[in-house]
Amino acid sequence: MDSNPVVEMMGRPLRLAVIGGGPGSFIGGMHRAAAAMDGRYEIVAGVVSSDPDRSRKAAVDMGIEAERAYSDAMEMLDAESARSDGADVVAIMTPNDSHHAYAAAALDRGFDVICDKPMTNTLDEALDLVRRVQSSGLIFCLTHNYTGYPMVRQARAMVKSGELGEIRLVQVDYVQGNKADEQDPDPSDGLPWRFDPARGGPSLVMGDIGTHAHNLMRFITDLEVAEAAADIGHVAPGRIVDDFGGALLRFENGARGSFWVTQAAAGVENSLWIRVSGTRGSVEWRQEFPTQLIFRPLEGPVRIYTPNGPGILPAAARASRIVAGHPEGFQEAFANVYSDAAEAIAARRSDGQANPMAMTFPTEIDGAIGVKFVDAVVESSAANGVWTNAELLTEEGT
Fold first, then answer.
1. SS3 for 265?
2. From the CB of residue 191, how many other CB atoms can be counted at a distance below 10 Å?
3. N or C of the chain: less Cβ packing under 10 Å?
4. Threshold 0.90, pTM exceeds
5. Which residues span the domain enclosing 54?
6. Where among 127, 145, 163 does a domain terminate?
7. Considering the domain boundaries, does residue 397 fall inside one?
8. Are residues 189 and 306 in the same domain?
9. 3 state DSSP class of 391
10. H or E stretch covering 81
11. Looking at the structure, do residues 232 and 370 belong to the same domain, yes or no?
């Protein structure tokens, strides 16, 4: 990522306005760092808190000019769309229930959009954003940042090249322990937004990490889940929100899969793991050891691929930032997604052509498919694990 095709195409970095992600937000800092890492964006405006005074102060503390440190998101979108030097792109990192309203308003005013996951809480809202994006021709990037890891892109490229043969089995686990303490029940007063289904969505664990696991297996395999037989709920006594979810999967090509996510595994930190098995071999990747992709061919010795190491494919080389043997991780993967989106946005705005390798970031379609999968898992579990359709069918039947 040494060159800066965005500046080459536009003569300047993209001007970015941010909504959400203010003081105390982990993900807000990740978004801003990812945007800044490659010099392809300049943060010029922001609304970073629902409290107007706090928002303006925090935005100024982040280096945003006082006149562009806004107190209200709609005020910002109107003001920036009217400026000759206004923002090009809007990044949304707010509670889930506001994603649709802010994304729709930004698209309606001609802004390209980068949005945190899940895209929306409901399928109707998701499909509305799909229609808005596709009718406008604007770029929509959903920050499933695990797709930015070099070795995840290596796995995807190996599947696409046929090195694994026909995919037969897919296993994905995303295991955390941050809700394992049974002495830490759901709060009764001042309910945090993630614990409120109206704001956080129908399933806490699915919205927080299940959508990541689902997107990762789709990204690597390029296969859609046709049906799911699921069981979701909570294992901590007295808890109301979901802290685990498991499902058996049937893929569109006949492959079988297993899906397991939980935030109640005591002592576990952030263990996202995937294995994809085809007729010619299997690949395995673990997020806590992200610089290794293990390939187990049907015949021949096990191979271990590393960023910028021997045998990596162009898609992985593009996402590898430093010399082989040096670790790179979460922030760099996040930045890869932001940088790829920047190239696509700059190409659209300058009537240029984006590098096809820059078009691998998750889009509005991926977001809608993720929301549909959450709905299918919730529906299946409510029906005691019955096989439930998980395919997204739009008005056009695709």
1. coil
2. 13
3. C
4. yes
5. 5-145
6. 145
7. no
8. yes
9. coil
10. helix 73-82
11. yes
